[in-house]
# Entry
Amino acid sequence: MVVSILYPEGNQGSLAPLEDRRFATDLNLDQVFDALTAGRQELDLASVLYTPLGDVDLVAYRHEVLADFEHPPLAEAVRAFGKGMRQVRDVLAAASKLHNHWQQERLFLEAVPAYCHNVASLGAALRELAPGARGVRAFNEYLRAYSASVEFTSLSQEADQIAEMLGKLRYGVHIKGTRVTVSPYRGEADYALEVETAFAKFREGAVKDYRANFRSLLDMDHVEGQVLNLVARLNPGPFGELDNYFHRRQAFIDAGIAAFERDSQFYLAYLDYIEPIRRAGLPFCYPRVSVAPGRTLATAAFDLSLAGNITKQGSSARVITNDLNLSPRERAVVVTGPNSGGKTTFARTFGQLHYLASLGLLVPALEAELVLADHVFTSFAQAEQLGSDRSHLENELVQLRYVSEHSTPRSVVVMNESFSSTTLNDAGVLGKAVLAKLLSRGALCLYVTFVDELASANEATVSLVATVDPDDPVVRTYKLVRKPPEGLAYAAALAEHYGLTYHAVSEKVTR
# Structure
């Protein structure tokens, strides 16, 4: 049985990739996932990234593997294995594009020993490092058994024997005009050596090298191909062995080895992505997850996509972290405050934390305690699409109706500026109705809105406010604090700052 470092034995169950991936676009997770899969498209990591886990033990299983991979010696051994496997696949891909079948088969013979060496090197490293994760230990035992099997040992031995036979072949090529003759080697002199010796006495120092270089195996023209075909006819024994081996060993890459290659890259790609963010001083942690709705905690949390872009660009901009601490009874967070104050960034952070936790990955926070979400739903304000049969508001209502009907106490719902296309009164009525429905389903919600009254809808609702510099209300701090919405306080502060209060304007008018 193939061992997986993504799922404990027999526990993958009916998990399947999500079809609706709009949430990833809303949360900017699609940007993160695109970076993780870049250069690894042949491994289909996207199917793993869009398959959340529904069991706490599955999350713990991945946490163990990820913790093992955080140790540099083990990570480097697995990285070397992945690099070696990519090289094997590159050789096989190059061979499949060649026209001469003997050329294809000889290149195939190069790929097999490289694969065997790669597997043996990984096995030696794992035996020495003694990993602690259940998944890696299970794969280590699988690898031991596979490496000792007749199937594996014969794979390498046969390839070496055939390569040795081919390496001993000698033949003569006679070229006269446009006629090329290939014959068995009968001890003829090496004329190239004789010519070089004859002209050596005329050498007067370093000169331009006019000798022709033989092209590589991948650069064979039709004449060379015909010569190779004739050599094969002269040596049916070794070439027959090569042909037989090629057809018998087409599926030489073991399914368990291929699975480990793909699965290990899931972990390494994520660790590679977060490494520069960590070096910049931002924290990551293994979240505590539970299937029972309970406390929601996130300390020094931040938007992973934003942090990734800033570190990649080498920007001097600072990533702001925020905290959230909800009791089990507090199931809705209403975020208000000035525009461009960090509200949408915090909404994305909230969704990212829960979805990344459901993949069994480290989350962007110093500490986190989260529900293991069965689904992360989003409803973000979108520009109206030309040619659509539905209005912007109708699209929002259809999406939120679907969310309210399918959400559970383990669902996370993130809404950003919903109903912004309506009047303030309508937005308040619709917002209250949606929140009430979601809370009746037990879902955990975060709602970024301009409707302050929603922040005090009921006891299950918490108000967060994006703050500004108290000395200069134009300057955003991008920090969110738990307090009642400020209502007109922000507008009043701006009016005071710019001398536009009623008293100041009246004084100027009466002058």
Q: What stands out?
A: The radius of gyration is 33 Å. Residues 53-165+250-266 form one domain. Residues 463 and 483 are 6 Å apart (CA to CA). Residues 211-215 have pLDDT under 50 and may be disordered.
